[in-house]
Design brief:
Elements lengths: L4 E7 L5 H8 L7 E4 L9 H4 L16 E2 L12 E2 L21 H5 L10 H11 E3 L4 H5 L15 E3 L10 H11 L15 E5 L3 E2 L4 E2 L2 H5 L9 E4 L3 E7 L9 E7 L5 E12 L6 H7 L2 E2 L1 H5 L7 E2 L11 E9 L8 E7 H5 L3 H22 L6 H16 L4 E11 L2 E8 L7 E3 L10 E3 L6 H18 L4 H4 E6 L11 H11 L1 E2 L30 E3 L13 H19 L2
Parallel strand pairs: 1-2, 1-13, 2-10, 5-6, 13-24, 14-15
Antiparallel strand pairs: 3-4, 7-17, 8-9, 11-12, 12-13, 16-19, 16-22, 16-23, 17-18, 18-19, 20-21
Helix pairs in contact: 1-16, 4-16, 11-12, 13-15
Bound molecules: flavin-adenine dinucleotide.
The site of flavin-adenine dinucleotide has 40 residues, from strand 11 and helix 16.
């Protein structure tokens, strides 16, 4: 039997990969294959249910990668969740649809990319099928600015069918106002500060989660030029033997459902969309990476690309519990987004200076903690851009999610949005399914802990401010016995390090930046040193965004698909 041949092979049928596969296969003369390690989950109620968040964790559709022990954060390992299914992590995520601060997308220009908020906005809208809230939903807090939303895209974005009522949103609004945090009529407009009731990747008509497969694949299964290989685990790319100076990928080797090794041939391109904790590993397994990583494992260096797997960034999340005297039903998400001045008031300017003066030390510490692949001067440049975002552009740096109390208990979730710490991810074996060394270096740098501590203090303030405090009767975790009212940073810091988890917003492991700054791909997603390998997934995002990642990834993938199409015209 001859080896199947396609114009394009997409490795990873996840949030980003399915967008690219869909758009490329719009042209019936173009053939596209998707290689996806997981199965389809169309009828999996852990996925589809509006209130099912968390139910898929630890099941067969959760990769549940394990990090290295986090030596700056209590020495424990962390579970790093990611979806293993057609639809990828969009099948298990929290469905929050929240973009970014416009200045954050604009900052990508400073690292060599021709992308701005205004150039990406049409792609956010292109992906979106925005379901306008009903009058009833508006009365429960749903609000939007129509100019920022698309109504003709495939991805349903809406407020949940059954929203939380009983004035919970107005109670929260009054609480945040008491803390001087204004109402934000549409936090997806590029300006995130304030309190808002956010929309979700949710299909209100069907009352189901909207994942990437529901949006971008299932309605298109009849396309004869689009094939999906499920339960198929990609191992590595293969290369053409021509002697050109740039490497040309001509196929992908994978293990099929029965465990047999198979191969597909690519005539035009291979697109890696396996997620930020996989795409860099596939590059390394294919000989694209840092020679010191590859040679140690006897992998022939096809492309010397030293920064593959570097720049790994994530955030840290903490949950706190409350008893409550009221019980709400329905779904809905309520967020307060705070910036540096909200957190540090009159001392913000002084703290900005302190952090600025610490950037060289941060760069040194990062060099030490990451094996020095990215040098001190480069890190300093990257950190300066981030410092500007935090203290000059004043992007939001704290996210406080308030869940409506149900069964008489309430839950707050919060995280610092702009940590500086960077780590890395590398293969430890030539066996593609062997675990990798994944090290986010949580809390390596003191800003990150301070950001988390003052986010925690802010969250507690929210819970103890009226009128919310009339509903949340007492704090059960951490509780004032464990973290007293006027607890020091040290007490807060110890507690936070003992309970935090990954926020699952891993980025930048094949960063879109100039080569000089440690980039792996250009703003066309093409891997430097290759003629036809692109990375289109969370691996490319150079700096953390304050929103949640999925909306920005859908937009970026839409943009990437246009670029790929144009380059083959
Ligand atoms: P993925 O969607 O993960 O796709 C990668 C695909 O590649 C997967 O299908 C995977 O199975 C496949 N794959 C991997 N390796 C191989 C291989 N070797 N061969 C073949 N296939 C392979 N973001 C939000 O915007 N809102 C939220 O509420 C939110 N909550 C989250 C909650 C959780 C628990 C998690 C884990 C993430 C959350 N995120 C959220 C983040 C967001 O969902 C992800 O960043 C995003 O979906 C990642 O998209 P991706 O295209 O990079 O990768």
């Amino acid at each position: 039997k001859s080896t199947p041949r396609y114009d394009f092979i997409i490795v990873g049928g996840g949030s980003s990969g399915l967008v690219v596969a869909n758009r490329l296969s719009e042209d019936p003369t173009v053939s596209v294959a998707i290689i996806e390690a997981g199965d389809q989950v169309f009828n999996n109620t852990n996925v589809t249910s509006a209130s099912g968040y968390g139910k898929a964790f630890g099941t067969q559709i959760d990769w549940a990668y394990e990090s290295e022990a986090q030596v700056y954060a209590g020495n424990k390992t962390q579970i790093l969740r990611a979806g293993k299914a057609l639809g990828g992590t969009s099948t298990i995520n929290g469905m929050t649809y929240m973009r970014a601060e416009s200045s954050q997308i604009d900052s990508w220009k400073k690292v060599g990319n021709n992308i701005t908020w205004f150039s990406l906005l049409p792609y956010y809208k292109k992906s979106e099928y925005f379901e306008y809230p009903t009058e009833a939903q508006i009365s429960m807090g749903a609000s939007y600015l129509p100019e920022f939303h698309g109504t003709e895209g495939p991805l349903s974005v809406s407020w949940p069918t059954e929203m939380v009522g009983n004035n919970f949103s107005s109670t929260l609004n009054a609480t945040f106002q008491a803390l001087n945090l204004p109402w934000n009529g549409d936090a997806n407009s590029g300006s995130m500060r304030g309190y808002n009731v956010f929309p979700k990747t949710f299909d209100r008509e069907l009352d189901l989660r909207e994942d990437a497969a529901r949006a971008y694949y299932y309605p298109f299964t009849t396309r004869p030029n689009l094939d999906v290989y499920l339960n198929s685990f990609a191992q590595r790319l293969t290369w053409s033997n021509d002697n050109s100076s740039v490497a040309f990928a001509n196929g992908v080797v994978f293990t099929d459902e029965s465990g047999k090794e198979q191969r597909l041939l690519a005539t035009k391109e291979v697109v890696l969309s396996a997620g930020s904790l996989r795409s860099p590993l596939l590059l390394e397994l294919s000989g694209v990476g840092n020679p010191s990583v590859l040679e140690g494992l006897d992998i022939e260096v096809k492309v010397n690309s030293p920064f593959v797997g570097e720049n790994l960034q994530d955030q840290t999340t903490v949950d706190t519990d409350y008893t409550a005297n009221a019980n709400f039903s329905g779904a809905g998400g309520f967020i307060g987004y705070f910036n540096a001045t909200d957190l540090w008031g009159n001392s913000t300017a002084a703290y900005s200076k302190t952090v600025k003066a610490s950037l060289e030390r941060y760069a040194n510490m990062t060099v030490q903690a990451t094996g020095g692949v990215t040098d001190r001067e480069t890190l300093l440049k990257l950190f300066q851009i981030q410092h500007e975002l935090i203290f000059e552009d004043e992007v939001v740096i704290s996210e406080v999610i308030v869940n409506a109390p149900s069964s008489s208990s309430g839950l707050l979730e919060y995280w610092g949005l702009m940590p500086f710490s960077r780590g890395n991810i590398h293969i430890k074996s030539t066996n593609a399914s062997a675990p990798a060394a994944i090290n986010p270096n949580f809390f390596l740098l003191d800003y990150d802990l301070k950001q988390q501590i003052d986010t925690a203090r802010t969250a507690r303030k929210v819970a103890t401010t009226a009128p919310l405090s009339d509903i949340l009767t007492s704090e059960t975790t951490p509780g004032f016995d464990v973290v007293p009212e006027n607890a020091t940073d040290a007490v807060w810091g110890d507690w936070l390090k003992s309970v935090y988890r990954s926020n699952y917003h891993y980025i930048s492991t094949a960063a879109m930046m100039s080569k000089e700054l440690g980039g792996v791909v250009g703003d066309d997603h093409l891997v430097y040193g290759t003629a036809n390998v692109r990375v289109v997934d969370a691996s490319v995002i150079p700096f953390q965004v304050s929103g949640h990642l999925a909306s920005t990834l859908y937009a970026l993938a839409e943009r990437a698909a246009d670029i790929i199409k144009a380059s083959h015209q």
